[in-house]
Design brief:
This protein has three helices and ten strands. With 169 residues, it is of the alpha+beta class. It has one domain. The chain has a ten-stranded antiparallel β-sheet. Strand 1 and strand 2 form a beta hairpin.
Length: 169
């Protein structure tokens, strides 16, 4: 499917929908190389339009993925009903996550290890940089500003492979 959102300049996502909750939908994303490439969780309320097969290239993407023997996979242990539960279950399942606040800046993705949520509903994230170097402190952002999470993709997995697990912060 192709998903467009009501956020100015937000990425359009080509993916298979593999889970839906009260607040979030989980997509197994398709890369520009027509491969399955991790997962994106996006807010249901931000979806403007979703089409199952009416986009140019849908059949090519599906066939290329099938010919490579790739299969979209649901993640049954991911809780999509609340932001807090989503963060907790993604952190349990994946070592790193990409965090987007696209209504503030659609071109920025913070990648790191979630270190919990404060009482004031702020995500504590220990960032890893593009050189796979870990920040020694955590930064916080309001969970209400988060519009998308990415996990398990090639770039994020490569950062973890090179940078390893984070030091304590």
């Amino acid at each position: 499917m192709r998903v467009s959102r009501e956020i100015d300049d937000a990425d359009r996502l080509d993916a298979y929908a593999v889970g839906i909750g009260r607040k979030w939908v989980l997509l197994h994303t398709i890369s520009d190389a027509l491969r399955l490439d991790g997962y994106s969780a996006i807010r249901l309320r931000d979806i403007e339009h979703a089409t199952r097969s009416g986009w140019k290239g849908a059949m090519t993407a599906h066939r290329a993925i099938a010919l490579r023997g790739e299969h979209f996979q649901p993640l049954p242990d991911i809780d999509l009903d609340s932001t807090k539960c989503l963060i907790e279950t993604l952190t349990t399942a994946f070592p790193l996550m990409g965090v987007y606040m696209e209504k503030i800046d659609p071109h920025v993705c913070y990648i790191g290890r979630a270190r919990g949520i404060t009482r004031k509903k702020r995500l504590r994230l220990q960032e890893i940089g593009p050189a796979a170097d870990w920040a020694l402190t955590c930064f916080t952002n309001r969970t209400t500003d988060i519009t998308r999470f990415d996990v398990g993709g090639g770039y994020i997995d490569a950062l973890h492979a090179v940078g390893g697990d984070p030091p304590d912060c």
